[in-house]
Protein: DNA polymerase IV
Organism: Rhodanobacter denitrificans
Amino acid sequence: MHPTTVVRVPAPSRKILHVDMDAFYASVEQRDDPSLRGKPVAVAWRGARSVVCAASYEARVFGVRSAMPAIRAERLCPQLIFVPPDFVRYKAVSRQVREIFARHTELIEPLSLDEAYLDVTTTKSGLGSATATAEAIREAIRKETRLTASAGVAPNKFLAKIASDFRKPDGLFVIRPQQVEAFLTPLPVGRLPGVGKVMEAKLAALGIATVGELRAFAQAELEQRFGRWGRRLHELAQGIDEHPVQPQRPTLQVSAEDTFEHDLRLDELEPHIRQLAEKAWAGHQREHGRVARTVVLKLKTADFHTLTRSLTPPTRPMSAAELADIACALRERVQRPADSRYRLVGVGLAGFVDRDSYQAQADLFDA
């Protein structure tokens, strides 16, 4: 008997764009208020309780970044101008950009208000290449929104996302199929999706600092050390990513959260949890044909550590009150000193399934 050889059939060649608006929220504010142009701007409320939603490129020179506590951002850049976020306005601009995408393809996968993947293997506009399509999209965004976007063109999603970062702001970078290996080889492994500081350190301990070194490492040993993630690392090092652009990404979680004016103890959170449960439940009700089975409680400590606790009960929550009851009970799973204080609480629903299939399973158990 000869051993069975598994032959990998390559996925059909794709042309993928990743389009990323440049410093989106801050750029909208600078566009609409000329007095902010050329100045360091943070979209955030000023104060110890706030975090930066977005920073202009002028602010980034000082090290100001999104998700940074506002008080730290102000220390880094004392002349920083704080502008409260206006998500209604940002969503309106995002819709404009989405309409521009839709002139070229229906295969659009939004990642957030300011970035999306597009599959332009074939296009409605009939432009000659993916590069020409990216240039047309960027030009339309500039003319119609008076904002700039950066784009990456590549044979797959993860490469397109890396490419869009290469010429920011207001840039275009193309990775052709024959260039993939040469492009990836010198990159630090931290540029690969899913490789954070912890994984970077683990790979460094194996003598792996670049994607080229990762590619040369034995796949079997990567799998032995990291399981399925080891196989995925080996694929990424070769530039392999067969995930298609998904126009209709199903909701993974609906949630609501609140940051307090003053830090609170765990036993003081119930009124806030119940109020947030009402908001999360309202979002859940808008998911037609799908129901959530898992309740999630999120907490952020006074020193910015995030904790999550979740529970999938035998029967899904059927009301905001049930959701709140379960979320409140999840506090018992927080093993921290009783006098610990929290600056944020969130309540969410996850584990979405098709409503009809859930009901069919429930009927089986009731029979």
Confidence is low (pLDDT under 50) at residues 1-10, 363-367.
